[in-house]
Amino acid sequence: MLRGFYSAASGMLAQQRQQEALSNNLANSTTPGYKADQSTMRAFPELLMQKMGSKEIPTQSGGLKLPVNQDIGSMNTGVYVQEEIPDFAQGDIRETGILSDMALVNGNLPDEAGGLFFTVQGTDGEQRYTRNGNFTVDGQGFLTTQSGNYVLDSNGNSIQTGGMDFNVTEDGVLQAGGQATPLGITYTDDVNQMVKDGGNLFRFEGEEGQAVLNARAADGVTFSIQQNFLERSNVDTSQTMVEMMNSYRLFETNQKVLKAYDQSMDKAVNEIARVR
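RESULT FIELD:
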């Protein structure tokens, strides 16, 4: 019976984490370039249940007892959220009419797990990656994210625009003050190595030998930049609401199971074992 408590409780905790992930997706459904998190559930290892007994064999000395185990079957001990994986599918493109807004549109990607990103500078000075092209120009004329992170060029340097009067070509070259600066567009052949780092940014956590490449130098990779446009979040709000209701029902079911076990335990302790 105690195992039942743990199984029901693990189900409740898993659905609570699922609900948190879905709520976060819904809250960011209007955030440009946001990638929805997908929770993956996994069961704890199954246990093989056996009935332990003994069999008496008559002997001249009076008898011999041998241990005998009888298989009853397997039992699952619960479930947990193994990980939350971002869905890197491209969101819809919408026009904003704002010069500093840019949408990164996927072209040809040689690997199904590949992805393209804008390159920005993190607060620690290291490179971060984003699909959110909702940029602006700071007081010193540098192109930044709305959070103040510098947008980097193909050489890893911040981009000076001199103001809001600039143009971005389809191949990602920013033209301002008579100068042409290629935007830092990066490519990875495995987006699963990208980990969310807050502020709609990603950091690369690939193994040794893996790297984020300059998209212009990557074989077979094509893309385009649309100025005055933004990539919308890829959250499907209707589907997310359905999943939230389903997760709530599953939480409620596990809660009822836990309550039933509690009532059974109450009877076992306070009624069945009562001395009359």
